Amino acid sequence: MEPHLLRTFVAVADLGSFSAAATKLGYTQSAVSQQIAALESDLGAALLHRRPVSLTEAGERLLEHARPLLLRIDAARAEIARVAGSPPSRISVGATPLAAPRVAAALTRARTSHPRAEITVAVLGRGEVLSQVAAGTLDLGLEEGISAPSDPLRLPDIGPANAVRIGEEELTVVLSAGHPLARRPALRLADLADARWLDAPDTGMPLADLRAAAGSDGFRPSLSYHGTDVGTLLALAAAGHGLTVVPRHVLAGIPGVTGISLSTDPTLVHRTELVHGTLTAHMAADLAAALTAGPAPP
Amino acid sequence: MEPHLLRTFVAVADLGSFSAAATKLGYTQSAVSQQIAALESDLGAALLHRRPVSLTEAGERLLEHARPLLLRIDAARAEIARVAGSPPSRISVGATPLAAPRVAAALTRARTSHPRAEITVAVLGRGEVLSQVAAGTLDLGLEEGISAPSDPLRLPDIGPANAVRIGEEELTVVLSAGHPLARRPALRLADLADARWLDAPDTGMPLADLRAAAGSDGFRPSLSYHGTDVGTLLALAAAGHGLTVVPRHVLAGIPGVTGISLSTDPTLVHRTELVHGTLTAHMAADLAAALTAGPAPP
DNA sequence: GATGATTACGGACGCCGTAAGCATA
DNA sequence: TATGCTTACGGCGTCCGTAATCATC
């Protein structure tokens, strides 16, 4: 269970290939093979099927633990590096595309009260935000996703009390204006399991999250979009390539699409949280105050 | 950041001594010294002051990460061992003392519906429960603590969705019957920071949790009790040795003590959660259904 | 001076690369 | 047959124990 073995295991699982993982990590094919073998013998269970490479049941379980473990290890290392180093004068903030409007709005307000802070903002794919906060590349990150009202997001914890609630909004499913369901006042997520869905893991709600929320194994992708541009995602939805789920506010004034509320569902909402390393907890408190004022403006 | 380094670091931090940690872990004094040195050089920061041994700022940070990391590593290993092994016929359940009445009540009901299950029950000190669930020694554990209403407990996560809410109850502070405050209808936790407190880390609410909940650095212990017997704890409170905090139901019919509600506080409640490895999720669902029926009987 | 952490050194083991082997598509 | 994972083997680095050294109470 040494971290470098977990790292290799995750790489192999992601890439579906020993040799690809080897080149990515700077090892030889053989080394990766030996590392996986070592992990399997340590744990006493086969983790991967070979030829083609796929996860065994035990491998699936390990993967669920390995990612958060590696994330937390990075977080610990980054935190200690900060304690040892000098207090940072620059603050970097990252956000997922659907949370980005909140940062922009809050920073204009923060500028007036803290005019001398040097702030960097980046919009990143979902998943990048948390790992970069963990690694210390980002000081603060805005994450968002689906949850029950007043329930926290299910993010891997990278430290004590590292996420604070920013706000919750109505969750809507985006349909092209001409869609048969476009005139319904509200919909239940489970009823849409068999529809055509957009797979936009960087930008929209991951389909796996929809499956988890609806308790269904549907939500199969009809088109995949890799990128962080919300406009493109909505344009794809408007063109009828599939459905996607977003918080209501991003649809304001967008032509060609209709947002149908999912709030009659076993009460699902779109929730935004501010994630931070514990060392930037005071910064987080300041920014959170500015951010929680309400839903983001257009 | 290899796990064995973290393990020795935690042992040194707990025991306050390199040599004590060495004997506990089966190393030589020298090996422990080298391991700590390796960790410090890897992280680029001093983790411990020597002579006497105490944590540096960086060490404090690392410790906050190291314990959950080790817990999760144990959880992953246990989970994989279960996948590889045969499905368990015996179920072991553990609970902290203040949660114990709930298991007892639920199991009598579970007995009638699942008469052939072989169930083991243990009452353990706070902190033992989670680590044994992680390690796979326990299949299910009942944890409890202070939280805001409908907020989850702040437990280190040992896997995806590993805790489910069982119930919440009024939180009361226990006073001897003759105590000056014993006739108040309600109290605020922060006002009691300077009182004499019982330190019963295995049984009652840890004083550190009270400090965190009240945002105060008071709650200093006047007497410490190590053990898992709630009756003894209440007897100490009745005898005026100090205050302690418990959920209301444990006080029903106990002479010599008075419970004053803390519910007017920034709304603090006593919350109970069922913790499980993901592999026992279905067992957890069954037991949770029996457990959530209401507050435990006397 | 005794206790306890550090440093020096040596043997054993582990890890990774090279290279050969082997199975599957 | 070719791609790709596995096994064999050797060098190098790491880890831990013994033992000597150093520092602190």
Explain how this protein is built.
Two copies of one chain form a homodimer. Chain A is globular, with a radius of gyration of 21 Å. The longest helix of chain A has 28 residues, at 57-84. Chain A starts with a helix and ends in a 7-residue tail after the last helix. In chain A, strand 1 and strand 2 form a beta hairpin. In chain A, the strands form three sheets. In chain A, strands 3, 4, 5, 6, 9, 10 and 11 form a seven-stranded mixed beta sheet that branches. With 298 residues, chain A is of the alpha/beta class. Chain A is built from nine helices and eleven strands. The first copy, chain A, has helices spanning 3-15, 18-25, 29-43, 57-84, 100-113, 128-135, 207-214, 230-238, 281-291; strands at 48-49, 54-55, 90-95, 118-123, 140-147, 163-176, 197-199, 221-224, 244-247, 257-261, 269-276. In chain A, helix 1 (3-15) packs across helix 3 (29-43). Chain A binds a DNA duplex (25 and 25 nucleotides) through residues 17-19, 27-38, 50-53.
In short:
Two copies of one chain form a homodimer. Chain A is α/β, with parallel strands linked by helices. In chain A, 38% of the residues lie in helices and 21% in strands.
Low-confidence parts of chain A: none
| Total DSSP helices of chain A | 9
Total E-strand runs of chain A: 11
Q: Which class best fits the helix and strand makeup of chain A?
A: alpha/beta
For the largest beta-sheet of chain A, the strand count, sense and barrel status come to: 7 strands, mixed
Rounded to the nearest angstrom, the radius of gyration of chain A is: 21 Å
Largest interface in this structure: A-B, 35 and 35 residues
Overall outline of chain A:
globular
